[in-house]
Structures are given as C-alpha cells and as structure tokens.
Automatic annotation (TrEMBL):
PANTHER family per the UniProt record, alphabetical: AMINOTRANSFERASE (PTHR43094), AMINOTRANSFERASE CLASS-III (PTHR43094:SF1)
Taxonomic lineage from the root: Bacteria, Pseudomonadati, Pseudomonadota, Alphaproteobacteria, Rhodobacterales
Cofactor annotation: pyridoxal 5'-phosphate
Gene3D superfamilies, per database record: Aspartate Aminotransferase, domain 1, Type I PLP-dependent aspartate aminotransferase-like (Major domain)
Gene Ontology molecular function terms on file: pyridoxal phosphate binding; transaminase activity
Family per record: Belongs to the class-III pyridoxal-phosphate-dependent aminotransferase family.
Cellular component, GO, one term: cytosol
Protein known as: Aspartate aminotransferase family protein
Classification via InterPro entries: Aminotrans_3 (IPR005814), Aminotrans_3_PPA_site (IPR049704), PyrdxlP-dep_Trfase (IPR015424), PyrdxlP-dep_Trfase_major (IPR015421), PyrdxlP-dep_Trfase_small (IPR015422)
Assigned keywords, A-Z: Aminotransferase, Pyridoxal phosphate, Transferase
C-alpha cells in the first residue's frame, strides 16, 4: 500500500470519520490498521497492537478467522442478495433467526433483522408503539431511557440514548424521556451501592407516575452501560427495575448490542443480571463485526400482538443473506469452541484480580468488571472520588493516547478507561494488556 503519510493525507482530505473532529485529523493523521489476527492488529507502519476494545466492542471471536470469509464467498456465489419483504425469504435468514431463538432466553423466539444496532433500536421504537396501537392503547407512546445510555446514532437511536452531545446534533424525537444512570462511583455520594442502585431504579417508578402509566410504552436500558463508561449497576438495580416494569405492565427493552453474544460470560447480559426483557437489541457480536448485521429479538407475546396486521417497517438489507450466513458461522464457531465458557474462565478470577490490581496505582480509584468488559476511573483523589479539574485537560484522553503509543487500544469516556477485548483473549494476552495499561496510566499525568 501507499506510504502511511500519503494515506493519512488522502484520509484527511476525503474521508469524514464518525465521532471525530475531522479538521483536526489533517494535522495528526489517523492510525491506519492493515491486518488482524486474534486479539492483535497490525498498522500501516508494521506495529503490533493489542486490541483491548475488539474494534468497537464487536470482534468477539477475534480477527482473522478465515472460515467466515469462506462462508461469505460461498453465499455470494450462490445467492448474493435477496430480500425478506413481501412473503419472501432465504435459507441464511431462516437459519440465523432459528439459531438466535435457540440461544435467546426462553420465550424470545422471533427476530426482526436490521443492518446495525442503531437501525434495530429504530425498529424497536416502531415495535413498541405498534404493540400498544394493536392493544387499543395508542396513547402509550413514551419510552423511558437513561442519561449516558447509548443506543446508536440514527435520529431514533440517538434520541433513546442519553448523551447530550448527540442530542445537540439534530435534537431528539418526541416521546423519549430520560432518568438517571446507576453510576455509583460518580454519583453515589455517601449512600451504599445497594441503596444507590435502588434509588436510581425507583426514578423509573417516579417517572411513570409523573407521566401517567397510560402514556408510557416502554423502558430501554443496556444491562451494563457501555459507551457511557462501562457502568456496572449495583446488584439491587435491575431487580428493582424489573419489579417496576412488571408492576406497571410496560415493555422492557434490553439493548444487548454490546452485552449480547458472550461479552458478560453468558450468551446475553440479561441472563447475567436476571433481566426478563420483552425485546432485546442485538448487533456487533452477532457476526463478530465480520459483516454489518443487527436485529431485535422479540418475545412470543409481543410478536403475537403485532403480527395480526402488516408491520410497515423494514430495511433493504434486513436479514442480508451474506451477513446472515457469516453471523451463523460466527455463532457456530462460538458454540463449537465454547467461547462463552472461555469468557467465564479467563474473566474470573484471573482478569478480575489483575483488573482490581490496577487500583494499587495512585491514580486509579474504581475498577469495574463483568465478564470481558471493564472500566477504571482515573482520579486525583481516590478517597474523595474526585474528578480531575478541567485545567489539566482530559486525563482519560491522554491515557488513551499513551495506550495507543504503547500499542494497546483502550477507550476513554471522560476520565474512565474501558476495555472490551476479543472474547478469545488468553491469560498471557491479559498479562500484556494489564502491563501496557499500567505503564500508560503512569505516563499520562
Ligand atoms: N446500542 C448499544 C448498546 C451500542 O453500544 C451501540 C453501538 O456502540 C448501538 C446500539 C448502535 O449500534 P450500531 O453502531 O451498530 O448502529
């Protein structure tokens, strides 16, 4: 390929990157990845980088699994495209829907495909509103979501998300309101984690009563907030949310785009936290990112209610045959190689101990981990759970830059540092990740 500097110049001149200050790219230049194998990436300069983020939380089976390319080629040669509109179907979409129903919690047997997590959450907005229309309660329109949640960046998904930066670009659709997130480290004050978790969950009840239950359609949440900083909720949180959802009879959407397909040590994060959703959003790990595909897994009751009339919704690429065939192969590999059990084996106690060990660093005040997703909080004062003052800049950003320089990819959300590595990571690779993380934290302040 061309020399890195030339690629960077072309990139900056013509390629608009998501979630990037594009004019700043010119001076700095993007890091250009050229190859991947397992948990390792190679860049255009030949550096070997350990990917602590599995791309964007998605390359669950790791890079370089050529079986997926073989399946894609076969499917393209056989039937590159057909749609699933108007009573047509094809083998990959049928087989994948059946496989997902087999893996999903009991009673969740129906899959509506999309091209991404954002599209799937847009589908969910329609699904829940359609459900209440069909039940003769069309005034039930409002979806309650959470601050700092992330549900994608289409206008629908971005509205469900609770990130003001995203709302600032184009506003929010009507009928979405937000309650607080269960971020104990940042917001728990003097409360115990359990009391804080209960209080945060009870904001849902207060919001339902305030809006009038007759107006509320659904609650949506990620089992563990991912892009918001890997916020693992106190154990009191989800049971209380479940109690409230059950009491008022509103629909529960678990956004499993990150937590689905093994990330938390079960097939779905809902299973790790005892959540019983009506709808689950899936994407990312469904195909390990080898093809763009997402969807909504819908429970029997919701599917029966909305199924009585035409559902005026769908995407050209809903259930795309190549994406579906690749996702199916990804799930076959995950099952055959017991990758979900591997997550449990390496996460606890091995990674959990090492991750908590980062708190021995004077700047690390909090360490959260569930399965293979974790976060640490960088702080100038652990006892006070203090934040760095803004005049030192974003310490998290600097830490991310140091990680990058040390050939480790970690993400930062403010001063929280995040990992979500490929699920196939080995104990030796965990050691490398932790060593590089420690050095990078040390260098960032
Ligand atoms: N929901 C969650 C929980 C996510 O983390 C993401 C992406 O990070 C999305 C939805 C959006 O998925 P996509 O980027 O595939 O549209």
């Amino acid at each position: 390929h061309m020399p890195t500097a030339e690629l960077q110049a072309l990139d900056a001149a013509h390629h608009m990157h998501p979630f990037t200050a594009n004019t700043a790219l010119g001076s700095k230049g993007a890091r250009i990845m050229t190859q991947g194998k397992g948990v390792w990436l190679t860049d255009s300069e030949g550096n070997k980088i350990i990917d602590g983020m599995a791309g964007l939380w998605c390359v669950n089976i790791g890079y370089g699994r050529t079986e997926l390319g073989d399946v894609a080629k076969r499917q393209m040669d056989e039937l590159a495209y057909y749609n699933t509109f108007f009573q047509t179907s094809h083998v990959p979409a049928i087989a994948l829907a059946a496989k997902i129903a087999e893996l999903a919690p009991e009673g969740m047997n129906h899959v509506f495909f999309a091209g991404s997590g954002s599209e799937a959450n847009d589908t969910n907005i329609r699904l829940v509103r359609r459900y209440w229309d069909a039940k003769g309660q069309p005034e039930k329109r409002i979806i309650i979501a959470r601050t700092n949640g992330y549900h994608g960046s289409t206008i629908g998904g971005g509205s469900l998300g609770g990130m003001s930066g995203i709302h600032a670009h184009g506003g929010k659709i009507a009928g979405v309101v937000h309650i607080g997130e269960p971020n104990y480290w940042a917001q728990g004050g003097d409360m115990t984690p359990e009391a804080f978790g209960l209080a945060r969950a009870q904001e849902l009840e207060a919001m339902i009563l305030n809006l009038g239950v007759e107006n509320v359609a659904a609650f949506i949440g990620e089992p563990v907030q991912g892009a918001g900083g890997v916020i693992v909720p106190p154990s009191s949180y989800w049971p209380e949310i479940q109690r409230i959802v059950d009491k008022y009879g509103i629909l529960l959407i678990a956004d499993e785009v990150i937590t689905g397909f093994g990330r938390t040590g079960n097939w779905f994060g809902s299973q790790s936290f005892g959540i019983k959703p009506h709808i689950m959003t899936i994407a990312k790990g469904l195909s390990s990112g080898y093809q763009p595909i997402g969807g909504s897994i819908v429970c029997d009751e919701v599917a029966a209610v909305i199924g009585s009339d035409e559902f005026n919704h769908g995407y050209t690429y809903s259930g795309h045959p190549v994406a579906a065939a690749v996702a199916l192969e990804n799930l076959r590999i995950m099952q055959e190689e017991n990758i979900v059990a591997h997550v449990r084996d390496v996460a606890h106690p091995y990674l959990a101990k090492k991750w908590a060990g980062l708190m021995e660093h004077p700047m690390v005040g909090d360490a959260q981990l569930v399965g293979l997703m974790g976060s640490i909080a960088l702080t100038p004062n652990k006892a006070a759970r203090a934040k760095f003052s803004s005049d030192v800049g974003t310490v998290g950003y600097r830490c991310r830059e140091r990680c990058f320089a040390n050939n480790l990819i970690m993400r930062h959300v403010g001063d929280r540092m995040i990992i979500s590595p490929p699920l196939v990571i080995t104990l030796e690779e965990i050691d490398v990740l932790i060593e590089r993380a420690w050095v990078s934290i040390d260098e960032c302040y």
